[in-house]
Amino acid sequence: MRNTAKITTAVLxxxxxxxxxxxxxxxKDSGSDASAPLKVAATxxxxxxxxxxxxxxxxxxxxxxxxxxxxxxYVTPNTAVQxxxxxxxxxxxxxxxxxxxxxxxxxxxxVPNATVHLEPLGVYSQGVKKLADLGKGATVAVPNDxxxxxxxxxxxxxxxxxxxxxxxxxxxxxxxxxxxxxxxxFKELEAAQLPRSLGDVDAAVINGNYALEAxxxxxxxxxxxxxxxxxxxGNFLAVKKGDExxxxxxxxxxxxxxxxxxxxxxxxxxxxxxxxx
Length: 277
What we know:
Belongs to the nlpA lipoprotein family. It is a lipid-anchor. The protein has 10 helices and 13 strands. By secondary structure, the chain is of the alpha/beta class. The chain folds into 2 domains: 127 residues, 3-Layer(aba) Sandwich (D-Maltodextrin-Binding Protein, domain 2), CATH 3.40.190.10; 104 residues, Periplasmic binding protein-like II (D-Maltodextrin-Binding Protein, domain 2). It has a 6-stranded mixed sheet, with helices on both faces.
């Protein structure tokens, strides 16, 4: 993802990617080897940490050999699944996946009953302790990928800073703001860059995983955060369509939603990550 064009990086890659999809997926179409390692792409925190816990503590007993491949962006894990470089990924929520598939012609799907956790989106600031204290013309950094940008704007709307046009959904941008009493200025950045932007902006709306990597706690440091109630942004295990019933995928789905993983999430993240099962 780049600052100027949301997930244009993936769009530009999609042409070449689409041409090679049949060849890239041909081996998998003939049937997966149930004894082969399951390769899973993930962002490092908390997804990579949760998968590493499963690999170290639970996988062997379940008869699963797990390989975790970490990525620091929100595009490569999906292109890697689509191209067959990995078997599955764990890093995204449904609105993001829907948008990605639509823009790239990919056919990645959520594994049923494998929604694992929610990372509450939070607003952080080095200059103010309350959103209401943001001054006129303050600059707010937001994620530049489509669904997370809309999610950030909806969080600001929920806290009374802006009002979006009626009916705006998961593709809202600053152009869809109907009312902006403080004349807030928005800086659109790749999600991974947001924590580093805090010294240059008045506030930033940061995804939970990147907040954790920057030692920011949505539960303790955010001046506003999403509520987990009825939240559509739970992160899940995803695969290329047709691979949902791979026995290895099913084993991992069961482990990801096990009591052991729920306890691991509760003990390690202290409310910064919330189990969704």
